[in-house]
Specification:
about 260 residues, alpha/beta, seven-stranded mixed β-sheet, 11 strands, about 30% strand, globular, binds S-adenosylmethionine
């Protein structure tokens, strides 16, 4: 089963998690191939007419996604709820990127962007369809008239595997132990938790909600967005249609302002 009775917002829970995780985040995700993944993401966006060079990266973390866009000529504004994650991003990007602390539940209007994205399951830290709709409305308010919005969410299979298993990552002299606490048959739309042990006496909780395709499509509609494409992918990161929650680990949504 998933957990029930969560009393704090997704932002509050995620901020606590990532303030503690920031120093080890890049080690924990060292095997993620952001160069290949972002190249595939750009292909699906180009099929929908991606143009321009202004990117807003929402929940940018340590900057692993946006760093891939700088050599491609994109001007980047990026935000995250965790100041410690942004410090890591600043160390990578220096002054080449505008960085701001912001909760995606109350996203400021940073400008008009050709591309707004929120990557690597950042959106799953939102804990209800109402929070998802609020975050998407904030992203929509930052889109240029012909801009595109892209985000991914973990598919059900990710909660039934990664979030229900133990995984050990050893890197740079550190031993990180991920203990997924979800049941291997956790139902759709559940809130799931995992403990990440980052030191002998230190561990932190990742709390995420699964969003079904129907919930995401409804939240997009309510936020004034038109869904253009839904893709799914497995561990190879190659987007495929249709999304299959039973075999894909991620779902990708491409959208734009409704009525454009
Ligand atoms: C798995 S990391 C992904 C980071 C980055 N997007 C990437 O691709 O590497 C999730 C990030 O989402 C951020 N986050 C979670 N909830 C948030 C919220 N409500 N507002 C802003 N950032 C949030 C966390 O602080 C964390 O940096």
């Amino acid at each position: 089963m998933g957990i029930t009775g969560v009393s704090e917002s997704g932002g509050e829970s995620a901020e606590r998690t990532y303030e503690a995780m920031a120093p080890v985040y890049d080690d924990f995700t060292a095997h993620h191939e952001y160069d290949l993944w972002t190249a595939d993401l750009l292909k699906i966006l180009e099929r929908r007419g991606l143009h321009g060079s202004r990117l807003l990266d929402v929940a940018c973390g340590t900057g692993k996604s946006f760093m891939e866009m700088l050599p491609r000529g994109w001007e980047v504004t990026a935000c995250d709820i965790s100041p410690a994650m942004l410090e890591q991003a600043r160390a990578k990007a220096g002054d080449t990127v505008e960085l701001a602390v912001a909760d995606m539940l109350s996203l400021p209007e940073f400008g008009e962007f050709d591309l707004v994205w929120a990557l690597d399951d950042a959106v799953n830290y939102l804990l209800s369809p109402a929070e998802l709709e609020r975050a998407l409305a904030g992203m929509a308010a930052n889109l240029a008239a012909t801009g595109l919005l892209l985000f991914d969410v973990n598919a059900l299979q990710a909660y039934r595997t990664f979030f229900s298993q133990t995984e050990v990552v050893e890197r740079g002299g550190r031993r990180l132990v991920w203990r997924g606490l979800a049941a291997p048959d956790v139902p759709p739309s559940s809130i799931c938790e995992s403990r990440l042990e980052i030191g002998p006496d230190e561990s932190l909780t990742h709390r995420q909600r699964h969003f079904s395709e129907a919930e995401v499509l409804e939240a997009l509609r309510a936020a004034g967005l038109e869904c253009l494409d839904v893709y799914g992918h497995g561990l190879d990161g190659i987007p495929r249609q249709p999304l299959d929650e039973a075999t894909h680990t991620k779902a990708l949504y491409v959208s734009r302002l409704a009525g454009v």
